[in-house]
């Protein structure tokens, strides 16, 4: 778990025993007690690089103790995403921003069933995860389990095909933790150089798409300020010099048609007869039966299960465009 010590005095420690319930980081070291910048050699650089890789900001064949140019660029991009001064140095402000993000991806620990009317820090932790997953649209999380939290839990349960009762019990906790693990999968290595160009590009598309999790939904939008479904896919692929039609119907006809069983990370997934007849919704397949998409005005960009009751009934096919 993340452990933060004495932030005010600048003596910082971040220990990871597995932010998620799968694939804990092999590298476990203090991070934050030494400012890091380009040209430095330090053991903490390996930890920083791994986090930047897991969050989709950095692509390296192998992590090392050397703070190279690629790491500096990744830090700058992360700083820009958090509204920080983009100086490329990993100091206290950047550290705290990283901790705040990672803390919200820690698995929930079940201690009691949570239901409407209850209060506690565990309620706030639940709300934070539901907000990340796109099921709770509030500015600030609280420690009160009100009607909005109950509705968010109910919608999550429906989406993932588990018992629908609006109560966060053991099954809901396990499912939330699994959903979080699909967003940020902590690994200790990257594909070898022998991996195919197609597979590598697909994974980079997925990494880039995850940067926009939580972005708001906006009909007609095609930027991080607001996406609709086809605007999201259009924007992500554009970063790889892949030009797609702007509409979901147009995207349903590009590239090579792919059956569900043959989907690979980076493929477009097409759904039909959602709010209108014919192809009407698109997303990006990320693997393991999951896809990322601009969902609805209340959820924004989220990750969903392609085999959930709703989406399996509307799935048509995939399209490979690279």
| Arrangement of strands in the largest sheet | 3-8-4-5-6-7
Q: Any idea what the CATH architecture of the largest domain is?
A: Alpha-Beta Complex
Low-confidence stretches: 1-29, 186-197
Major sheet size, sense and barrel closure: 6 strands, antiparallel
* Distance between the amino and carboxyl termini: 39 Å
**Number of helical segments?**
10
Q: Please trace the helix and strand order, writing H or E for each element.
A: HHHHHHHEEHHEEEEEHE
Determine the mean pLDDT: 82
Task: Give a written overview of the molecule.
The chain is α+β, with helices and mostly antiparallel strands and 322 residues long. The protein has three domains: 7-103, Muramoyl-pentapeptide Carboxypeptidase, domain 1, CATH 1.10.101.10; 121-183, PGBD-like superfamily/PGBD (Muramoyl-pentapeptide Carboxypeptidase, domain 1); 197-320, endopeptidase domain like (from Nostoc punctiforme) (endopeptidase fold (from Nostoc punctiforme), Alpha-Beta Complex). The protein contains ten helices and eight strands. The chain has helices at 43-54, 69-81, 92-103, 121-132, 147-160, 170-183, 197-210, 229-238, 248-251, 309-314; strands at residues 222-223, 226-227, 256-258, 268-272, 279-287, 290-294, 301-305, 315-320. Strands 3-8-4-5-6-7 form a six-stranded antiparallel β-sheet. A hairpin with a 6-residue loop joins β4 and β5 (279-287). The longest helix has 14 residues, at 147-160.
